Amino acid sequence: MTNSECLSKYERYLADEKKASKNTLSSYLRDIRQFGEYLESAGGTDYVTAGEEELCEYIDGLRAQGKSIATVSRNIASLKNFYVWMKMHGFVEQNPTGRLVPDKATHKLPEILTAQEVELLLAQPECTDRKGYRDRAMLELLYATGIRVSELIGLDVSDVNLSAGIINCRGRNKVRAIPLYPKAIKALKDYVEFIRGEMIASPSERALFVNVNGERMSRQGFWKIVKSYQQKAGIDKDITPHTLRHSFATHLLENGADLHSIQEMLGHADISSTQIYSQLVKKQLKDIYNKAHPRA
Asked: Model-level pTM?
């Protein structure tokens, strides 16, 4: 079902069943239409296939554009109501808006890990069995590239060029060639050359990362992996695969990378989605200043 068909059905539902006022109808439809335009500009994703990552990036982009708390909160409410309806009518299996939380007083910036916390997390997988080698490669690759978890689990073996030290990430709008740092190359090489062949269920399996059944890793499966290593590392922050994406971008910016290069690596269609990392860096500098300056 196309975005326009979804929107038309939802409009009839609001008008005929919910008896929504003209103002409510107008604002809801405008918010959802703009989200649809964002998805289309980002490479053709639609309402039905959009996931938590797309929704969170869209809302983060609104915040980065300086939209008011009221505007961001209204967009969140519009999208939450829309996806409740989508799930109720069987258009989606799961409601992807669970992580969208309205801002109460100030813009909520995404949580990131410090460089030390990243090192601690990446050190958790023990390369003593197949799972350890696979998990080390997945975490190193995620932090090395900042790709989305959907892109990570969507990688095929053919997308990896170890000799060149890059991966070809097939994102929403194009293929992105993203470089890897040496530790990520080594972790990936160890997994691909010595481990993956023993884990795959079939020689024809194309997936780079597979689960214990030898089939392509699922999004939920990888989220559980990240959570287990967070607990093992004793890190109090709520770490998700997207936390490593945020940390990747913020750490690059802190160390001198320009926004447009980060935008290219992250695969953001709009620079406004990338600008939120400037706010994160500014906030960190302010926190450091307040803690360190003798007259602060």
From this structure: 0.64
Last residue of a domain, one of 88, 103, 131: 88
The CATH number of residue 216's host domain is 1.10.443.10
179 pairs with which residues across the strands? 166
Q: 65 and 127: one domain?
A: no
Q: Which amino acid is at 39?
A: L
pLDDT band per the 50, 70, 90 thresholds, residue 253:
confident
Residue 266: partners with Cβ closer than 8 Å, 6 or more residues away = 146, 245, 249, 273, 274
Tell me: the pLDDT tens digits for 144-158?
A: 999 988 889 999 999
Q: Which residues contact 30 (CB under 8 A, 6 or more apart)?
A: none
pLDDT over 70 at 173, yes or no: no
**Rounded to an integer, what distance in angstroms lies between the CA atom of residue 188 and that of residue 146?**
15
Rounded CA-CA distance 195/174 in Å is 30
Amino acid identity, residue 36? Answer: G
Q: CB-hemisphere CA count at 13 Å for 218?
A: 5
Residue 207 gets which letter from DSSP? B
- The percent helix, strand, coil of the chain (3-state, each to 5) is 60, 5, 35
| Strand-strand pairing, 160-161 and 175-179 | unpaired
Query: Domain range holding 15?
Result: 3-88
pLDDT digits (tens, 9 = 90+) for 77-128: 999 999 999 999 999 999 999 888 877 645 556 778 999 999 999 999 999 9
Length of the chain: 296
Handedness of CA 109, 114, 119, 125 (dihedral sign): negative
